[in-house]
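yo

u said u wanted the structure for the complex thing, so here. seqs first:
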Amino acid sequence: MQFKSTRGKVAGKGFVDTLLMGLADDGGLMVPERIPAVTDQTLASWRGLDYISLFLEIFALYVGDDIPREDLRAMAERSYGRFRDPQVTPLVRVKDGLHVLELFHGPTFAFKDVALQFMGELYSYVAQRQGEIIHILGATSGDTGAAAIEGVRGKEGIRICILHPHQKVSRVQELQMTTVDDANVLNLSVKGNFDDCQRVIKELFADLDFKSGHHLRAINSINFLRILAQTVYYFYAYLRLDEQARAGKVDFSVPSGNFGNIFSGYLAKRMGLPVHKLIIATNENNILEQFVKTGVYRSGDFRSTHSPSMDIQVASNFERYLYYLTGEDAVKTAAYMQTFHKDGEIVIEGEELAQVQRDFAALGVGNARCLETIADFKTQHDYLLDPHSACGVAAAEACGGTGETVITFATAHPAKFDEAIKLCEIEQEIPEPIQELFAKSQHQVVVDYDKAFIVRQLEAFYNGVNLVGGTEAHE
Ligand SMILES: Cc1ncc(COP(=O)(O)O)c(C=O)c1O
Ligand SMILES: N[C@@H](CCOP(=O)(O)O)C(=O)O
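structre next:
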């Protein structure tokens, strides 16, 4: 399988080159040259496969000869062997027509572990096999950073720098990232929001001299590997439904921010998974809801909510969807993206908007509704949702119903967001690995939202020099 860019100026790249490129060199995002088809017959033959076997079947469609299957299997076994549930992403039936897919059984208690545990293994493999220097640069609203750091901490040949918005992540998310004391990890706590962090790293990846000079590699969902690894659990969840549910319509409700998780669902559907509707659940940062309802994609004012990982205005994967919406028209996609950068909005109309509304339903869940959903779900089903997953359930309740079965994603463990759970007057048991974080010391550099200063920090770190001093260092 070969990969190409949504902006049309990069093509013919293999799987490993696509992994290493991250953001496409023409500023677009990498996608497969053709989406492989999974026939009904193949899908039926996958029924009963365990998670890793299913993962290998799906990856085989994309990896080509780049990595031998036994090497992929060994990496997948190490990655998913660290999950607390043997099913990796168990599907829990809550009531008739409603299932929760639990994606939080990995080391950092969020869905990001599913792709990032494997990505850490893969980067390490490539570093050893190709003698590659891997300098990871990523932005996080809390969960990607923790999962990526956990995936590569202490690994030879790899350094990782993560930017997170200062004091805009939950306490546990901050501790997960900053209590790691391996020398190959740098946390920059940026006085700004997640969009600011993401903007800086996208600019640095788009600067090809800087990118190649510093061997920059991406762990965010701009990297196609993230998208692919996340498609596996859509197939897994569907195949775990009973026959009757599979015979009906199946919707997925997906707590969304950067549009990576739901884009994986879109890809799975294009591959042939019989998905009826993809429901985009956002919080008060509801640019995606507005887009689905009106065709206008415009970032608004940033809002801090109970679901901080979804406090995102500019969704980086939106471009991948636009590419398919325009019928894989790279020129039109590039023009849309240029308009967005110039005018701050994109307007979709006519048949394209009708297609958006066939593909997706959407709901932006307000803060009060998020907390009510947590409390009600606990009372009615004795199931504690984290605030992101609660947005998913609220959206499933509001927008589902056209499907006969909704699978709603639990994207994080509630213990990561005890601030919100306490507001619902619910006491939860905190798992030991999270409790232990509170006794550890933190390492982070607090920096202004100042690209030049951030670049100096990065250069020092990637050159193996001691840090040049942030406004506040090593708490
Ligand atoms: C817990 C949680 N839920 C949902 C999301 C949104 O996922 P995505 O950015 O892939 O849309 C995130 C962050 O990405 C998250 O950390
Ligand atoms: N919510 C994310 C934001 C980054 O998203 P990604 O999927 O592009 O890595 C986070 O937790 O960091």
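The pocket of LJ64HWYM (ligand 2) is lined by residues 140-145, 220-221, 257-258, 260, 309, 316 (CB under 6 Å). The first strand starts at residue 3 and ends at 5.
cya
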